[in-house]
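Tip: read the tokens left to right.
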């Protein structure tokens, strides 16, 4: 057990203490802590206890991973405290003074109709259809010449549609309609073959709607998550070893896979495998190195890749600036009780934390900001502030 590992975990304990004592698990920073743990903490335990999956790293890569994890944790701690430091507050009640108008409903109906039509039209080209037939598939977001307009509509499926569901959720009186829309949004998230976004959607639902309660609905979401994972991975249960692997695989995917790519990256950099590789292409090269085939990508949070390409000083400076902006936005979001605003902050944070700086994430952020502006504009000055079940509708 190295000194770097000990320091990493001491910093994590400090973060966990502050996170719990300041009740940040009920704030919009929840997703930040989850990603911090799954990227920079839990993989270190997998490594030290001898996990054999993705075992392509050396002691050099592990040492570098522990060091940057400690740095990331220290910066995270500073800004977590900063976020909760008292300073002159700004009145953001304007966010809470909006309610749904007829124009807002037209916008909601239009988006759901267009996305549903797109999925129906291209359904046979979607990975989900291949899964139903028991065939292999290539995720359309990892190839350049895949399904037409897939990236554009994937932004609507992954970002916009869930936000509009949360926007109208408290206006829905019929539980069957609410269940139908929840299933429809879940289907949009899974039809492209990606498991991660759906799982994090369920996490957000548990965190916000279910208020972190371990209830019957929580176990339903948990079981559905496992079933979907088994279904997409086509895991069989022919013997006890298959059953054990089926239980371990989704947990390893959530707590290890994303972060374990970091020590592998540092080893590849040490071997000179990134000398002629751009920042944007690192994730593709790592995927091929780990899995031995392409196309595919193995993205991570931007910090390690920045260190590889630009060094520690510039990377820490960018990370600090990024945290400053995001934690301030989080402070604003926490003034709102609308699931809509919380989802938008959550999913856009998730995109950057899990896949770094990229052109695709820039488009997602632009689309997210436009979505907020459109909803705000359509509901502007039409009604007075109302509250439903203690949650204000825009």
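Filled-in amino acids:
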């Amino acid at each position: 057990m190295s000194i770097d590992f000990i320091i990493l975990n001491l910093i994590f304990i400090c973060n966990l203490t502050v996170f719990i004592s300041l009740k940040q698990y009920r704030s919009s920073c929840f997703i930040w802590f989850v990603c911090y743990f799954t990227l920079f903490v839990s993989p270190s335990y997998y490594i030290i206890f001898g996990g054999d999956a993705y075992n392509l790293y050396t002691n050099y890569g592990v040492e570098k991973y522990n060091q940057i994890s400690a740095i990331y944790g220290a910066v995270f701690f500073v800004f977590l405290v900063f976020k909760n430091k008292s300073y002159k507050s700004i009145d953001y009640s304007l966010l809470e003074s909006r309610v749904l108008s007829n124009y807002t409903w037209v916008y909601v109906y239009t988006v759901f109709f267009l996305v549903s039509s797109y999925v129906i039209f291209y359904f046979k080209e979607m990975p989900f259809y291949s899964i139903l037939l028991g065939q292999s598939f290539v995720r359309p977001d990892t190839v350049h010449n895949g399904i037409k307009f897939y990236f554009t509509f994937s932004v609507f499926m992954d970002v916009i549609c869930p936000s509009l569901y949360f926007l109208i959720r408290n206006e829905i009186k019929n539980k069957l309609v609410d269940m139908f829309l929840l299933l429809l949004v879940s289907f949009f998230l899974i039809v492209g073959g990606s498991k991660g976004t759906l799982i994090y959607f369920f996490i957000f639902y548990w965190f916000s709607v279910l208020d972190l309660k371990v209830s019957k609905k929580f176990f339903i979401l948990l079981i559905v998550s496992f079933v979907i994972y088994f279904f997409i991975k086509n895991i069989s249960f022919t013997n006890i070893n298959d059953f054990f692997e089926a239980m371990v695989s989704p947990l390893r995917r959530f707590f290890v896979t994303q972060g374990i790519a970091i020590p592998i990256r540092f080893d590849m950099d040490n071997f000179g495998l990134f000398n002629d590789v751009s920042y944007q292409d690192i994730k593709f090269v790592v995927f091929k190195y780990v899995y031995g085939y392409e196309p595919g990508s193995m993205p991570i949070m931007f910090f390690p890749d920045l260190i590889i390409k630009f060094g520690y000083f510039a990377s820490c400076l960018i990370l600090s600036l990024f945290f400053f902006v995001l934690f301030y936005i989080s402070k604003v979001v926490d003034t709102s009780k609308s699931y809509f605003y919380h989802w938008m902050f959550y999913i856009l944070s998730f995109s950057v934390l899990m896949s770094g700086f990229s052109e695709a994430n820039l488009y997602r952020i632009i689309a997210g900001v436009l979505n907020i502006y459109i909803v705000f504009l359509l509901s502007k000055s039409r009604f007075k502030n109302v509250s439903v079940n203690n949650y204000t509708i825009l």
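Confidence is low (pLDDT under 50) at residues 381-394. Residues 240-270 form the longest helix (31 residues).
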